Amino acid sequence: MARIYRTALVVTFLAVGSLGVCVMVDGGPDTCQTDFCCVDCESAAVARVIDGDTLLVGRRFRRDQRVRLYGVDAPERGERCAAEATSRLRELAGDSVRLQSGPRAEDVYERRLYYLFTDSGDSIDELLVREGLGRAWTRDGQHRESLVKLERQSRNAGIGCLW
């Protein structure tokens, strides 16, 4: 009987986890609109958006940190779609973002690497890729598969200014 219970518990856990279920924020309605979300991740104030995949965040009792989106490679200044990606990141980030660590803490430029989420828990990485404003990072990361799939879909549909 205990074995059946354990199996049912594992199956239920896997089913709920695979649905990308979001946790309610402040007891309000479920507002997550992305496949992966994080409503209880650490929050950080946005000091400044640098470009479409990099920003400065203020951490409590620390100086501002340069943060790079873990799952997205956005166009650099002067490249096609750079202004649109930067503008959209600024809009999505607002005054604060939620941070989720990936397998690596920093990139080669010593920027902190995080998946970023809006205050309501929506994945900023996912939205930028889905909207054709950034390419999926393909080397590593826990959300790599989802982001690569979304990039393929937005590319095939001609969504955004990258394709």
Radius of gyration: 17 Å
| Quaternary structure annotation | single chain
The rounded distance between the terminal residues' Cα atoms is 55 Å
Give the helix level as a range of percent. Answer: 25-40%
Poorly predicted runs of 5 or more residues: 1-29
Tally of DSSP β-strands = 7
Binned strand content: 25-35%
In the CATH scheme, what's the topology name?
OB fold (Dihydrolipoamide Acetyltransferase, E2P)
Strand order of the largest sheet: 1-2-3-6-5
Described by the principal axes of the CA atoms, the overall outline is globular
Q: Describe the biggest sheet?
A: 5 strands, mixed, barrel
Please, how many helices? 4
Going by CATH, the architecture would be: Beta Barrel
* Integer average pLDDT: 84
Q: Structural class of the helix and strand makeup?
A: alpha+beta
State the order of secondary-structure elements, H for helix, E for strand: HEEEEHEEHEH
CATH class, named Mainly Beta
Count of the domains: 1
How would you characterize this protein structure?
There is one protein chain. The protein is an alpha+beta fold and 163 residues long. The protein has a single domain, classed as OB fold (Dihydrolipoamide Acetyltransferase, E2P). It is 31% helix and 25% strand. The protein has helices spanning 2-18, 82-93, 124-130, 144-157; strands at 42-51, 54-58, 65-69, 72-73, 96-106, 112-117, 135-136. Strands 1-2-3-6-5 form a 5-stranded mixed barrel. A two-stranded antiparallel sheet has the order 4-7. α3 (124-130) runs parallel beside α4. The longest helix has 17 residues, at 2-18. The protein is globular and about 40 Å long. The termini are far apart.
